[in-house]
Design a protein that fits this description.
307 residues; SDR family NAD(P)-dependent oxidoreductase; NAD(P)-bd_dom_sf; 10 helices; oxidoreductase activity; oxidoreductase; alpha/beta; 8-stranded mixed beta sheet
Length: 307
Amino acid sequence: MTQGWNARDIPDQSGRTAVVTGANSGIGYITARELARRGARVLLACRSEARGQEAQARLLREVPGADAQFVPLDLADLASVREFAASYPHARLDLLINNAGVMALPYGRTADGFETQFGVNHLGHFALTGLLLPKLLDTPGARVVSVSSGMHVIANIDIGDLNSEHRYRRWIAYGRSKTANLLFVHEFARRLAAAGSDVIAAAAHPGYAATNLQTAGTKMEGRATATRVVELGNRVLAQPAESGALPTLYAATAPGVRPDSFTGPGRLGWRGAPAPSWRAKWTRHDVSGERLWIASEQLTGVTYKTP
């Protein structure tokens, strides 16, 4: 079904509205650009005003006449998330692409005191989706796509230490945050089905795609040698961001995408056209999904209001 699927296969998106978080670079930018190219109105939700405006200008140069607008959103600050949702200007929301993320950073905390990777990758998007849920429910055929990672396999969540306060290991924390993305999709899909909603919650991952995500942590710590090694790996081993964005675009737009599906590159989950992706069994565990959901509502103060 997905053999050879590429950006040219994206159905017409005219009349549809999409929000893409982290749309200033990497697969987020490519996702926003290709949705706009197919006629969608796209909101580029980015933390940095300068980079967000640069991305908007670049997109309009590459897709003349596109309907694309930068809107500030800092997923590391729940006040910013609430402001974004409260000021959302449109009557419909067809696509919410929870793309933004951080990877393997030194230990830090968000504005609300959460460990940075868990706070940005999971809790920020959990709050954003919940606050925008009324718009999604009012839009026939709406989809929420959460971008996880094949690296979720390195760690299940620790429900007793979600913020890694007992011991912090950057890659384990990253794996836990990406597992949280998949557990969120699993539980969200279950709740939507129980409510009789046609909103689709799905997940995707880019495989190994060359973006600035891999070097953010090493640059923060001034580890020049490690940064050069990662950059070399990006040049030699990774697929380009254009290819890495395809699983997200497929999950967002292709006909027949099922709730709680996980789409990634078809060749060993590493590169290639979008295909169903393997996932760890713990990402489909009902009890874990429900416990993470309850904890996320308590931590963010955002309660989902389904019919």
